[in-house]
Design goal:
By secondary structure, this protein is an alpha+beta fold. About 30% of the residues lie in helices and about 20% in strands. The chain has seven helices and 15 strands. The protein has a four-stranded antiparallel sheet. A hairpin with a 5-residue loop joins strand 11 and strand 12. The radius of gyration is 36 Å and the shape is elongated. The N terminus is likely disordered.
Length: about 300
Protein backbone atom coordinates (compact mmCIF):
# COMPACT_ATOMS: atom_id res chain seq x y z
CA UNK A 1 0.00 0.00 0.00
CA UNK A 2 1.23 3.52 -0.58
CA UNK A 3 0.39 7.11 0.22
CA UNK A 4 1.72 10.63 -0.20
CA UNK A 5 2.91 12.76 2.68
CA UNK A 6 3.83 16.45 2.67
CA UNK A 7 6.78 16.61 5.09
CA UNK A 8 8.55 13.78 3.32
CA UNK A 9 8.29 15.70 0.07
CA UNK A 10 10.42 18.50 1.54
CA UNK A 11 13.02 16.00 2.76
CA UNK A 12 13.28 14.23 -0.56
CA UNK A 13 13.22 17.43 -2.60
CA UNK A 14 16.24 18.65 -0.65
CA UNK A 15 17.96 15.31 -1.22
CA UNK A 16 17.28 15.46 -4.94
CA UNK A 17 18.74 18.94 -5.22
CA UNK A 18 21.87 17.80 -3.40
CA UNK A 19 22.10 14.66 -5.55
CA UNK A 20 21.80 16.58 -8.78
CA UNK A 21 24.37 19.07 -7.56
CA UNK A 22 26.76 16.21 -6.80
CA UNK A 23 26.16 14.74 -10.24
CA UNK A 24 26.80 18.10 -11.87
CA UNK A 25 30.02 18.56 -9.86
CA UNK A 26 31.33 15.16 -10.94
CA UNK A 27 30.44 15.84 -14.56
CA UNK A 28 32.16 19.23 -14.29
CA UNK A 29 35.33 17.70 -12.88
CA UNK A 30 35.34 15.04 -15.61
CA UNK A 31 34.93 17.62 -18.37
CA UNK A 32 37.67 19.79 -16.89
CA UNK A 33 40.04 16.83 -16.74
CA UNK A 34 39.38 16.08 -20.38
CA UNK A 35 39.36 19.63 -21.77
CA UNK A 36 42.08 21.37 -19.75
CA UNK A 37 44.77 18.77 -20.53
CA UNK A 38 46.51 18.81 -23.88
CA UNK A 39 49.92 17.46 -24.92
CA UNK A 40 52.59 20.07 -25.66
CA UNK A 41 53.00 21.19 -29.27
CA UNK A 42 56.62 22.27 -28.78
CA UNK A 43 59.28 20.58 -26.65
CA UNK A 44 62.89 21.33 -25.83
CA UNK A 45 65.60 18.70 -26.21
CA UNK A 46 68.42 19.56 -23.79
CA UNK A 47 70.83 16.98 -25.26
CA UNK A 48 71.31 19.22 -28.31
CA UNK A 49 69.65 22.45 -27.18
CA UNK A 50 67.00 22.56 -29.89
CA UNK A 51 63.21 22.40 -30.09
CA UNK A 52 60.78 20.15 -31.99
CA UNK A 53 57.46 21.66 -32.94
CA UNK A 54 54.03 20.81 -34.33
CA UNK A 55 53.82 18.28 -37.15
CA UNK A 56 57.58 17.63 -36.94
CA UNK A 57 57.06 16.60 -33.31
CA UNK A 58 54.20 14.30 -34.30
CA UNK A 59 56.26 12.69 -37.05
CA UNK A 60 59.38 12.39 -34.89
CA UNK A 61 57.49 10.57 -32.15
CA UNK A 62 55.55 8.28 -34.50
CA UNK A 63 58.70 7.26 -36.40
CA UNK A 64 60.74 6.23 -33.38
CA UNK A 65 62.21 9.55 -32.29
CA UNK A 66 65.79 9.21 -31.10
CA UNK A 67 66.32 5.70 -32.49
CA UNK A 68 65.41 6.31 -36.13
CA UNK A 69 65.50 10.11 -36.56
CA UNK A 70 67.91 11.24 -33.84
CA UNK A 71 67.98 14.43 -31.80
CA UNK A 72 67.32 17.77 -33.52
CA UNK A 73 70.59 19.50 -34.39
CA UNK A 74 69.15 22.70 -35.91
CA UNK A 75 66.04 24.77 -35.46
CA UNK A 76 63.54 24.88 -38.33
CA UNK A 77 65.13 26.41 -41.43
CA UNK A 78 64.04 27.64 -44.83
CA UNK A 79 65.69 25.72 -47.67
CA UNK A 80 64.62 26.58 -51.20
CA UNK A 81 61.28 27.88 -49.95
CA UNK A 82 60.52 24.84 -47.80
CA UNK A 83 60.61 24.53 -44.00
CA UNK A 84 63.07 21.82 -42.90
CA UNK A 85 64.82 20.68 -39.75
CA UNK A 86 67.97 18.60 -39.44
CA UNK A 87 68.32 15.68 -37.03
CA UNK A 88 71.15 13.30 -36.28
CA UNK A 89 70.05 10.72 -38.87
CA UNK A 90 67.57 12.60 -41.03
CA UNK A 91 66.08 15.83 -42.32
CA UNK A 92 62.38 16.47 -41.89
CA UNK A 93 60.64 18.56 -44.54
CA UNK A 94 57.25 20.29 -44.42
CA UNK A 95 55.10 19.64 -47.51
CA UNK A 96 51.73 21.36 -46.84
CA UNK A 97 50.71 20.89 -50.47
CA UNK A 98 51.25 17.13 -50.56
CA UNK A 99 48.19 15.61 -52.31
CA UNK A 100 48.22 12.53 -50.06
CA UNK A 101 48.00 14.60 -46.89
CA UNK A 102 51.44 13.46 -45.66
CA UNK A 103 52.73 16.91 -44.78
CA UNK A 104 56.07 15.72 -43.33
CA UNK A 105 58.61 13.97 -45.55
CA UNK A 106 62.02 12.49 -44.89
CA UNK A 107 64.53 14.44 -46.94
CA UNK A 108 66.87 12.79 -49.45
CA UNK A 109 69.98 13.61 -47.44
CA UNK A 110 71.88 10.62 -48.81
CA UNK A 111 71.45 11.97 -52.32
CA UNK A 112 72.49 15.43 -51.07
CA UNK A 113 75.60 14.07 -49.37
CA UNK A 114 76.70 11.92 -52.34
CA UNK A 115 78.53 14.72 -54.22
CA UNK A 116 80.53 15.56 -51.09
CA UNK A 117 81.50 11.90 -50.58
CA UNK A 118 82.50 11.43 -54.22
CA UNK A 119 84.56 14.64 -54.13
CA UNK A 120 86.39 13.50 -50.98
CA UNK A 121 87.15 10.08 -52.46
CA UNK A 122 88.31 11.63 -55.73
CA UNK A 123 90.77 13.85 -53.88
CA UNK A 124 92.11 10.89 -51.92
CA UNK A 125 92.46 8.83 -55.09
CA UNK A 126 94.83 11.45 -56.52
CA UNK A 127 97.43 10.63 -53.91
CA UNK A 128 99.10 8.09 -56.17
CA UNK A 129 101.03 5.21 -54.70
CA UNK A 130 99.40 5.29 -51.29
CA UNK A 131 97.11 2.78 -49.60
CA UNK A 132 94.65 5.62 -49.08
CA UNK A 133 94.50 6.27 -52.84
CA UNK A 134 93.94 2.60 -53.66
CA UNK A 135 91.18 2.38 -51.05
CA UNK A 136 89.54 5.52 -52.41
CA UNK A 137 89.60 4.22 -56.01
CA UNK A 138 87.87 1.02 -54.95
CA UNK A 139 85.28 3.04 -53.03
CA UNK A 140 84.60 5.28 -56.03
CA UNK A 141 83.70 2.26 -58.15
CA UNK A 142 80.94 1.49 -55.64
CA UNK A 143 79.03 4.57 -56.85
CA UNK A 144 78.88 3.35 -60.44
CA UNK A 145 75.58 1.67 -61.43
CA UNK A 146 75.63 -2.08 -62.02
CA UNK A 147 74.51 -3.50 -65.35
CA UNK A 148 74.49 -6.92 -66.98
CA UNK A 149 73.42 -10.40 -65.95
CA UNK A 150 75.35 -10.51 -62.68
CA UNK A 151 73.70 -7.29 -61.45
CA UNK A 152 70.20 -8.68 -61.84
CA UNK A 153 70.90 -12.06 -60.25
CA UNK A 154 69.03 -12.15 -56.93
CA UNK A 155 69.75 -14.58 -54.10
CA UNK A 156 68.37 -15.07 -50.57
CA UNK A 157 71.04 -12.73 -49.16
CA UNK A 158 71.26 -10.38 -52.15
CA UNK A 159 68.81 -8.08 -53.97
CA UNK A 160 69.26 -5.96 -57.07
CA UNK A 161 67.31 -2.67 -56.90
CA UNK A 162 66.54 -1.68 -60.48
CA UNK A 163 65.36 1.83 -59.56
CA UNK A 164 68.93 2.86 -58.70
CA UNK A 165 70.87 -0.08 -60.24
CA UNK A 166 72.60 -1.17 -57.06
CA UNK A 167 72.70 -4.30 -54.90
CA UNK A 168 71.78 -4.63 -51.23
CA UNK A 169 73.16 -7.73 -49.55
CA UNK A 170 74.00 -9.51 -46.30
CA UNK A 171 73.76 -7.36 -43.15
CA UNK A 172 72.87 -4.20 -45.07
CA UNK A 173 70.00 -6.02 -46.78
CA UNK A 174 68.73 -7.29 -43.42
CA UNK A 175 68.80 -3.80 -41.90
CA UNK A 176 67.23 -2.18 -44.98
CA UNK A 177 64.36 -4.65 -45.11
CA UNK A 178 63.76 -4.54 -41.35
CA UNK A 179 63.38 -0.75 -41.40
CA UNK A 180 60.88 -0.58 -44.26
CA UNK A 181 63.17 -0.65 -47.31
CA UNK A 182 62.58 2.39 -49.55
CA UNK A 183 59.93 3.80 -47.18
CA UNK A 184 62.57 4.81 -44.64
CA UNK A 185 66.10 4.70 -46.07
CA UNK A 186 65.16 4.94 -49.71
CA UNK A 187 66.96 2.90 -52.37
CA UNK A 188 70.73 2.28 -52.44
CA UNK A 189 72.92 4.86 -54.19
CA UNK A 190 76.12 2.83 -53.99
CA UNK A 191 77.48 -0.63 -53.53
CA UNK A 192 79.27 -1.49 -50.32
CA UNK A 193 82.64 0.22 -49.93
CA UNK A 194 85.35 -0.03 -47.29
CA UNK A 195 87.19 2.81 -45.59
CA UNK A 196 89.55 1.74 -42.84
CA UNK A 197 87.93 -1.02 -40.79
CA UNK A 198 84.34 0.02 -41.63
CA UNK A 199 82.10 -0.95 -44.54
CA UNK A 200 79.61 1.65 -45.77
CA UNK A 201 76.62 1.82 -48.11
CA UNK A 202 74.83 5.00 -49.11
CA UNK A 203 71.05 5.17 -49.53
CA UNK A 204 68.78 7.98 -50.72
CA UNK A 205 67.91 8.99 -47.16
CA UNK A 206 70.65 7.52 -45.04
CA UNK A 207 74.11 6.04 -44.70
CA UNK A 208 74.71 2.61 -43.17
CA UNK A 209 78.01 1.64 -41.61
CA UNK A 210 79.26 -1.78 -40.55
CA UNK A 211 82.32 -1.62 -38.30
CA UNK A 212 84.41 -4.78 -38.20
CA UNK A 213 83.07 -7.33 -35.70
CA UNK A 214 80.08 -5.11 -34.87
CA UNK A 215 76.47 -4.66 -36.00
CA UNK A 216 75.13 -2.59 -38.87
CA UNK A 217 74.01 0.82 -37.68
CA UNK A 218 73.00 4.24 -38.96
CA UNK A 219 75.66 6.87 -39.53
CA UNK A 220 74.79 10.41 -38.31
CA UNK A 221 74.35 11.64 -41.85
CA UNK A 222 72.17 14.58 -40.79
CA UNK A 223 75.01 15.93 -38.67
CA UNK A 224 77.47 15.39 -41.50
CA UNK A 225 75.36 17.20 -44.09
CA UNK A 226 74.58 20.09 -41.72
CA UNK A 227 78.32 20.51 -41.14
CA UNK A 228 79.08 20.40 -44.87
CA UNK A 229 76.47 23.11 -45.49
CA UNK A 230 77.69 25.26 -42.57
CA UNK A 231 74.26 25.31 -40.95
CA UNK A 232 73.67 26.94 -37.56
CA UNK A 233 73.65 24.21 -34.93
CA UNK A 234 74.36 26.21 -31.77
CA UNK A 235 71.91 25.51 -28.90
CA UNK A 236 69.04 27.94 -28.32
CA UNK A 237 67.58 29.10 -25.01
CA UNK A 238 64.87 26.88 -23.55
CA UNK A 239 62.67 29.66 -22.23
CA UNK A 240 59.49 28.25 -20.70
CA UNK A 241 59.23 25.26 -23.05
CA UNK A 242 58.84 21.82 -21.45
CA UNK A 243 61.77 19.43 -21.60
CA UNK A 244 60.91 16.49 -23.82
CA UNK A 245 59.72 13.38 -22.01
CA UNK A 246 57.27 10.85 -23.39
CA UNK A 247 55.26 11.13 -20.17
CA UNK A 248 54.16 14.59 -21.35
CA UNK A 249 51.95 12.86 -23.91
CA UNK A 250 50.11 10.59 -21.47
CA UNK A 251 46.67 11.98 -20.50
CA UNK A 252 45.99 12.32 -16.76
CA UNK A 253 43.60 9.75 -15.29
CA UNK A 254 39.92 10.67 -15.34
CA UNK A 255 38.63 11.38 -11.79
CA UNK A 256 37.27 8.14 -10.39
CA UNK A 257 33.56 8.33 -9.71
CA UNK A 258 32.12 6.95 -6.51
CA UNK A 259 29.16 4.57 -6.66
CA UNK A 260 26.89 7.46 -5.67
CA UNK A 261 28.32 9.75 -8.35
CA UNK A 262 27.92 7.09 -11.00
CA UNK A 263 24.32 6.52 -9.94
CA UNK A 264 23.55 10.22 -9.93
CA UNK A 265 25.10 10.68 -13.36
CA UNK A 266 22.48 8.29 -14.75
CA UNK A 267 19.55 10.46 -13.62
CA UNK A 268 17.41 12.20 -16.19
CA UNK A 269 16.92 15.76 -14.88
CA UNK A 270 13.64 15.99 -16.82
CA UNK A 271 12.17 12.81 -15.33
CA UNK A 272 9.17 12.95 -12.96
CA UNK A 273 10.04 13.04 -9.26
CA UNK A 274 7.65 11.27 -6.90
CA UNK A 275 7.43 9.55 -3.53
CA UNK A 276 6.31 6.06 -2.62
CA UNK A 277 5.38 5.21 0.99
CA UNK A 278 5.05 1.55 1.93
CA UNK A 279 2.64 1.55 4.89
CA UNK A 280 3.25 -2.12 5.65
CA UNK A 281 7.05 -1.94 5.86
CA UNK A 282 7.15 1.74 6.93
CA UNK A 283 9.61 2.59 4.10
CA UNK A 284 9.68 5.73 1.95
CA UNK A 285 11.23 5.62 -1.53
CA UNK A 286 11.99 8.73 -3.55
CA UNK A 287 11.95 8.17 -7.31
CA UNK A 288 13.27 10.19 -10.23
CA UNK A 289 11.81 8.53 -13.27
CA UNK A 290 12.41 4.80 -12.77
CA UNK A 291 15.51 5.25 -10.59
CA UNK A 292 15.20 5.10 -6.81
CA UNK A 293 17.29 7.95 -5.43
CA UNK A 294 16.49 7.42 -1.74
CA UNK A 295 15.09 4.77 0.57
CA UNK A 296 14.44 5.55 4.22
CA UNK A 297 12.54 4.16 7.20
CA UNK A 298 9.60 6.37 8.19
CA UNK A 299 6.87 6.56 10.77
CA UNK A 300 3.54 7.10 9.06
CA UNK A 301 1.61 7.94 12.25
CA UNK A 302 0.41 6.34 15.49
CA UNK A 303 -3.02 4.92 16.31
CA UNK A 304 -5.64 7.44 15.49
CA UNK A 305 -3.31 9.41 13.23
CA UNK A 306 -2.52 6.83 10.56
CA UNK A 307 -1.62 7.84 7.02
CA UNK A 308 -4.51 6.83 4.79
CA UNK A 309 -3.66 4.57 1.85
CA UNK A 310 -4.10 5.78 -1.71
Amino acid sequence: MSGRRGPAVVLVACFLVASLAGSAEFAHRSVLAQTEWAPPRTVYVPETGHTIDGVFLDFWRSWGGLVSIGYPITEELDEDGRVVQYYGYARLEYWPDDPTGDVVHLGAIGADLKPFLVKDLTERARREGTDEAREAKRALRAFEPLVGEDAERDAPDRRYVSETQHIVQFGFKTFWEATGEATYLGNPLSEEYVLGDTTYQLFERGLLRWPKDKKVRMAPIGEELAKRRNLETEPVAQGDLPTYAEALFTPPPTPKASDEERRQSQLDPQAERWLEVDLSDQVLTAWQGDIAVLKSSVSTGKAGFETPPG
